[in-house]
UniProtKB/TrEMBL annotation:
One of its GO terms (molecular function) is zinc ion binding. Pfam families: A_deaminase. InterPro entries: A/AMP_deam_AS, A_deaminase_dom, ADE, Ado/ade_deaminase, Metal_Hydrolase. It is an enzyme of class 3 (hydrolase). The record marks 228 as: Important for catalytic activity. This is Adenine deaminase. GO terms for cellular component: cytosol; nucleus. Substrate binds at residue 286. Its EC number is 3.5.4.2. The gene is AAH1. Its main location: cytoplasm. Belongs to the metallo-dependent hydrolases superfamily. Adenosine and AMP deaminases family. Adenine deaminase type 2 subfamily. Zn(2+) binds at residues 16, 18, 204, 285.
Amino acid sequence: ENEISFLTEIPKCEHHLHIEGTLEPKLLFELAEKNNINLPLNFPATHEELAASYNNFSNLQDFLDVYYIGCNVLINEDDFYQLTLEYLTKVSKQGLKHTEIFFDPQSHTSRNLSIDLVFNGIKKACDEIFVEFGITTKIIMCLLRHCSIDDCSATLDLAEHLIKDGKIHGLGLDSSEKPFPPELFEQVYLKAKQLNPELRLTAHAGEEGDSSYITNALNKLNVERIDHGVRSIEDPKVIERLANEKIMLSVCPLSNVVLRVVQDVSQLPIKKFLDANVPFSINSDDPAYFGGYILDNYLEVQRRFKLTKKDWAFIATNAILGSWCDEDRKTELL
Ligand code: ES4
Ligand code: ZN
């Protein structure tokens, strides 16, 4: 009980949250009906059955197949607004202070939605929640690595105005990690940075892929942090580099269990990261699919590792320092 209130109170920052992954089964069915979207014939018939099916993913691709079906029910600006508002309202009760929200433009532009419609819906909810709860947000677009380089490059063109004026704050890379290593996207990342030198860069690496994916994301894409990155533990040199260069990993404990990266959270290298001084934050990834929001991830880490208050202070401080919020916001949170 004490632990629950301690972990609720501790100021939390989230850096790895796919907004499409906050689509709860109930809202998925509501929007499908409202928007007249036909779900596949073999799709579960009720939100209860859908929720139950999430226990059976055997890997990342298994999950992504369902996640992309879910994306199809999002049609109107208001759908993205409602989705984002429901996420932010939930985490406002979990001690979340700052969140960096990923969205996948290609999951929507491929269905002929405009990137502005998607962005505006998300942004409207972010602005309202800031006024109501003081939670700060940054929006990061992710490119889908299973799409062609040309499609990724064309998506940057669609986002050009949002990147140039800093409304899109960062670029990430998600979807099926293998067989799409980071170096394939070198030119795309270069082009993005040329649109706006202040654009922040990250990429999913070292969840499915081995530690060379992390090294190549750093060397070829010039990313400032790594999403997941747990397979860094397989290479002491990579661990040393992350610690020395203060490169933060956005670790997603419950995600790693549901997608079978590890059997349970106790198998994650949390203690090793702490011992090696590797900065990391704890995040929810796709909370509607993986069984919990940010606080649930903190609680599961504590249940498995029994960390000290000093450990938690290290984690919370690094999460603030690794955030891409404005400097005065950082100072406020520290
Ligand atoms: C994702 Cl867990 C994960 N990995 C890669 N891409 C994703 N998109 C949404 N969730
Ligand atoms: Zn992710």
